[in-house]
Amino acid sequence: MKEVGIKRRCFLKFSGLAFASTAANCFFGLRPGFAAEGRTPWRNKAMLNDTAKCIGCLSCATACKKANSLPDPYKYSLETDAETWTTVKFKKAADNRVLNVKMQCMHCTTPSCAGICPTGAARVTEGGVVVIDQEVCIGCKNCVVACPFNVPGFSEETGTARKCIFCKGRLEKGLIPACAEACPAGAIEFGNRSDLLTKATNRVNELINRGYQNAQVYGIDQLGGLKVLYVLPEAPEALGLPRSPKLANGDSVLKWATGILTAGVLAVAPLRSIFQERAGDGGSKPEGRVKIT
């Protein structure tokens, strides 16, 4: 049990402001925010995953875990979650071929997670990377439910939602994302988005000439355009990707209800401890401590 010294009056004021802020965001509509970070050299950068080249070695998933200090770097997970930010899904094509599909946050231009987040923790940075601020996230799981790619996961350990951050720390040092650096088959490329789209189009034409009639580029305009692009030898839905991912409606009171309720519980729950403590000491200690378990 951890004790944090907080004056009751200040705590009540802070809790009320936090709840009011969350409610205001919900009713007036919160839009994806952009962090004031100055111009970033990776603004127009993107990643290209060539599914036809992927050999399913999971080097990308292991590198991701190591670069982000995530647990069990050699443990395979079928889905992305709070402790697995990159994985590879194995899909069987119509002709029984097994295709390997790398999955991580798509870093959408218009992400559902940012549009539905009641606190602004999920946001689009100026460089186009979608992050979830761990200091602001209240663990309402709205982003987990809203993401059409089922990417974010809730961490029981931190009480927050977590996901791929496009190796933002590495980008700031002039490095490329760990998954792209680790791929031994050249299935993952990092570079200017326009250049990658040209390369992807040429690659799709090559696949079509080889008999992959459903080959296509994925991520060009889905949710405003994805920072993570794909060369797909089959239709998106056959590989577990939504052809037309839907944007969660941030103006819907019903969809905001969870965020409001969670914020309310978080604001009110500690008050119970305060009143219980006050009842126990007869109200003689106006400057007591709030116990947070």
Overview of this protein structure:
This protein is α+β, with helices and mostly antiparallel strands and 293 residues long. The chain has 8 helices and 12 strands. It has 2 domains: 2-29 and 252-292; 45-239, Alpha-Beta Plaits (2-Layer Sandwich), CATH 3.30.70.20. The strands form 5 sheets. It has a 4-stranded mixed sheet with strand order 9-2-11-10. It is globular, with a radius of gyration of 22 Å. The chain starts with a strand and ends with a strand.
Domain module tally? 2
Shape: globular
CATH architecture of the largest domain: 2-Layer Sandwich
- Strand residue content: 15-25%
- Bin the helical content: 25-40%
| Low-pLDDT segments, ≥5 res | 1-38, 267-280, 282-293
For the termini, the CA-CA separation is: 5 Å
- CATH class wording of the largest domain: Alpha Beta
Structural class: alpha+beta
Strand order of the largest sheet: 9-2-11-10
The total strand number stands at 12
- Average pLDDT works out at 81
Rg over C-alpha atoms, rounded to the nearest angstrom:
22 Å
CATH topology of the largest domain: Alpha-Beta Plaits
Total of helices: 8
Biggest β-sheet description: 4 strands, mixed
Structure in a nutshell:
This protein is α+β, with helices and mostly antiparallel strands. The chain contains eight helices and twelve strands.
Write the layout of secondary structure elements.
Blueprint: E1 2-4, H1 8-28, E2 45-50, H2 59-67, E3 87-92, E4 98-103, H3 112-116, E5 122-124, E6 130-132, H4 142-146, E7 153-155, E8 160-162, H5 168-172, H6 178-182, E9 188-192, H7 193-209, E10 216-218, E11 228-232, H8 253-281, E12 290-292
Helix pairs in contact: 1-8
